Amino acid sequence: MTPPPLRIISLIPSATEIVCSLGLEKCLVGRSHECDFPPAVKELPVCTAPKFNPEGSSGEIHQRVSDLLTSALSVYRVDVNRLEALQPTHIITQAQCEVCAVSLGDVEAAVAELTQGQPQLISLSPNRLADVWDDIYRTGIALLGEAGQAQVETVLAELKQRVQICCDRTADLPAPTVVCIEWTEPLMAAGNWVPELVALAGGKSLFGQVGQHSPWLTWDDLIAADPEVIVIMPCGYDLAITRRESAALTAHPQWSQLKAVQTGRVYLSDGNQYFNRPGPRLVDSLEILAEIFHPEQAAYGYRGQGWQPL
Description:
Blueprint: E1 8-10, H1 13-21, E2 28-31, E3 48-50, H2 58-70, E4 76-78, H3 80-86, E5 90-94, H4 104-112, E6 120-124, H5 129-144, H6 149-170, E7 177-184, E8 187-189, H7 194-200, E9 204-205, H8 219-225, E10 229-232, H9 239-245, H10 247-250, H11 259-262, E11 266-269, H12 282-293, E12 307-309
Parallel strand pairs: 1-2, 1-5, 5-6, 7-9, 7-10, 10-11
Antiparallel strand pairs: 3-4, 7-8, 11-12
Helix pairs in contact: 5-6, 6-12
């Protein structure tokens, strides 16, 4: 029997990008409210929404999300009626972070309400770069079957080759000490795959452990570490909003004491499009960091689009 045509709903931006990298963009029939790349996916029906007001300062958003989680409520809602109407064969979600996107539990509860068919759930849970490669492979095989293995392996080989080229460019260069800031109010350093990307790009990450969730910081921590480079990459923010939110840092009375500030080595990056999405564009994120740390040896052309000086 011929299997039904693929009808994929992606409920996390990184999964949408994985699906498209595998050549299956035309098989997408629905997306999350945050999926926006490649740009054409913005025309797809939206199947999720936040339960909080996403507008406001970092501190205000942090408080709203914290209040929801304290009340034992999920942060996002799934539109069950839309799922029913779209009749997906596959739904891709995540179990990595309940704050970043719809959780696996939310999706399982929504699917349990469907009356027409039971789509296959694919759950992603990456903590480091190797997990991202594994997610791409698992997703590819789940969607394309064993017959698509060569296609999936080609996609992975191309991504890994770019990583190796970047590593070769920076391997023998002095490694600056680096702090990547994932949230500004309260302070949070970037964890999971970001410390790994920093090392591969020729830097030394001072906070965050590879494969571990992002840690909260105090100003005393930051001042004591006194990094040579600071990269501000708030989760979910583009460059314009990141610049606005960086005011919470620059207004702090101890900000000017930092070596990175004094030497002009503080940078803003588009965390929403790059560092916060554990999919194919983590390789772009690696190249962005290499360009920031070692601009003469790793000029990729991301300045102005993926990052800019503070």
